[in-house]
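Predict the assembly for these two chains.
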Amino acid sequence: MITSIFLIPILFIISSVFLGFSDNFYHLYENLLLEYSLNSIYLVAGVSLLVTILGVSTAWLVTFFNFYGKRFFQWALILPLAVPPYLLAYVFTEFFDFSGTANNILRNLFTTQSDVIFFPNIRTIIGAIIVFGFTLYPYVYMVSRVAFMNIPASVIEASSLLGKNSISTFFGLSIPLIRPAIIAGVALVAMETLADFGAVQHFAIPTFTTGIFRTWTGLYDLNTALQLSTMLLLVIFIFLSVERASRSKIRYVNSVTTSNSYKPIQLMRFKSAAAFFVCLIPVFIGFFLPVLELINWSSQVDTLVSTKIFLAASNTLYISLSAAVLTCFIALLINFVVRTFGISQLLNDLLSLGYAVPGLILAVGITKMFTSVDAWLINYGTFITGSILGLILAYIIKSYAISNIVLNSALNSIPIALDESAQTLGASKLKLLRDIHIPILKTGLLTAFLLVIAELIKELPATLILRPFNFDTLSVSVYLLASEERMFEAAFPGLVIIFFGLIPIYFLNKLILSNNK
Amino acid sequence: MKINKFLLLALLIVPITLLFLTNTNEEVQNEEVNIYTSRHYDADNLLYEQFTKKTGIKVNIISGKGSALIERLKAEGINSPGDVFFTVDAGNLANFQKQGFLQSIQSEIIKQSVPVELRGENDEWVAVAKRARVIFYNPELVSEGEIKDINYEDLASDVWKNGIAIRSSSNMYNQSLVSSLISNLGIDETEKWAKGLVSNFARKPQGNDRSQIMAVANKEALIAIANTYYIGIMLSGKGGKEQLNAAQKVKIAFPNQNNRGTHINVSGGGVLKHSPNRENAEKFLEFLLSEEAQVHIVNNTFEYPVLESVKPHPIIESFGDFKMDKTSIADFGKYNPEAVKLMDRVSWQ
């Protein structure tokens, strides 16, 4: 039952393939498909490389060394997670624009001429790679950090006893050991990048998602747009499989964990400063720069706080909290059922697809599904299209993958033998779930819950189309103001989104650090 | 541990109950009108409040991208609570009408006050405000004599090599402009023109209309194509000081004044076919076309009014009168897909 709710919107999208290909599809195939694909590939490849470099190097420094500012960076490195890519894209374009802050500062410093440009055009693939790289690297940072901490101290010590220095231990030993974790993190980032619309749209880069929307809004051809989405889904499914395959290997590393009491090496002078800057750059570009610039914009607006923003803020909180609770609950149930009734993991993979479907397309699928439900519900004088329930359902479908990834790996770390002995002792399945799994999974549940909230606070496209009358969230306010090109007024709700995003991140950090002890 | 369980339970129960509360809350209130709009200017909200104050009819808004709203309306079918569809692009409006979502407007007041070319064939929709897509130039780089008698057609000429700034072809205003050219010149001629235009681009299409105007002010381009109301917003100081400075450096030329006139686009709306509050919907449209509302619109969004008795904002009025292209707005919708494909073929990003 639950499964079908998840799958119908996706099946609706895929079914477009069987409705025949129109002239528009051939038009796209001849003129644009190659460009879309190449751009998407460059983008994903570039972002993957960047997040790997940023995420792994910072995680390595913070785990194995002591240097100036380490205590700060330990948690600060996750902060960019609170910044939605579209916000960073807005900030970047204005900041590095001809008359933006960056060029103005440098002009004041070095020259008196007012028409010199210091920064190249940011609205390019490189620009987009930077935006995604610096907002999404925390995914890789987090998984790498946990994985690094789980490498037994004895392994690292053995390596240094054998005369290897830190660098060669890093490349020769640590990296191969945590490779599955890195791949899992990068796969998540790749999916987010492929499904994003706001940032690439703002940069006007012809990728697969921009192509989907162009086909829909310009050619008035939803079916061809859905066919393109299906192709995208296929790619995403590959990433999902890669992610899961890697995750199953992570367990192997975990199981050899003996002692974590590895003593970090103290870095001196130059090396300490170098480590400081390596960690500072991602935090600065991904978090402090956008926040400062948004504050700067907000300060130029007369009335910041209005009842409208207050309402939007409480709507955002209310709906993402409810959806997050339900998502985790459902993910827990499904994972439990898959485990105890021996159902294929494929089920979970299918349910996770919603994560990677561009939000607006997913929303169309959901609307179609609701219509058929409504045709029946209308007899009872109510319907779900345009209700809070509808929106929450969309949120659940969208964010299931995140909670599933966390809960699935947490559940896998509980030995099956434990279940078997519980059942031999006569415990019912319900009792097994309630008294054994849930208490063990407490941290996993909380992590999943926090990650989902952090994600949903930023959600835009599905909210925009599925929300009830007069129901604004923060991201909707930002979007509406930004699309009117009123960036300064959009800045404040943008800041509130970042602030709300910080709350779950704060708790996530606490969780990760307490794991460390 | 016990407390945690209770917490978990409470966290689960609270949202679920709230869900059902909100969902049954959809009883039809007596006096309301439900608007689906892709025109989400903040100034419009004040307008809606005025309407409510005047008539006691509550205005409910759902805003989003036009094409997404259309999908939602399609899906809702005869159960749709929507009364009015309101959007910023004529192509959208015409396409929507063609798919049979709108019913004819009955109001005699509207029929009398709005010229026939600003209404649907059978009054399925009505324009509420107009904007012209004009050429901005930097007088330091381009003389008035060079640009005075310019036509859109001339933009393909070598004179403008590396000189034109315009946004992406994904933008609906560009799609409507190209559709109007297809309607007047035919597909082949328009494609030739577009090829020439693309070869004259000063830079890769990027940013919004305002950044095209900025590019001209900063001498990144000789001329830019953008809508009139943007310069109004910039000159009013609403966009900040930088934009004001930039806007003061550029001038406007209205193309095709010696022939069919300058391309205009409209914001407009219509009554939805399954509208449950049809009378209120008509009252709402009548209100938008009242002098009071038109004055509010021109002063806040810097668009051109639809009523002849209302004058544009002084800033906009200062650009002078011009001849408007009367190419059928229905053609914008008809040729929009062709326009997009054509722009694809000439690699207009």
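Residues 252-259 of chain A have pLDDT under 50 and may be disordered. Chain A touches chain B through 68 residues (CB under 8 Å).
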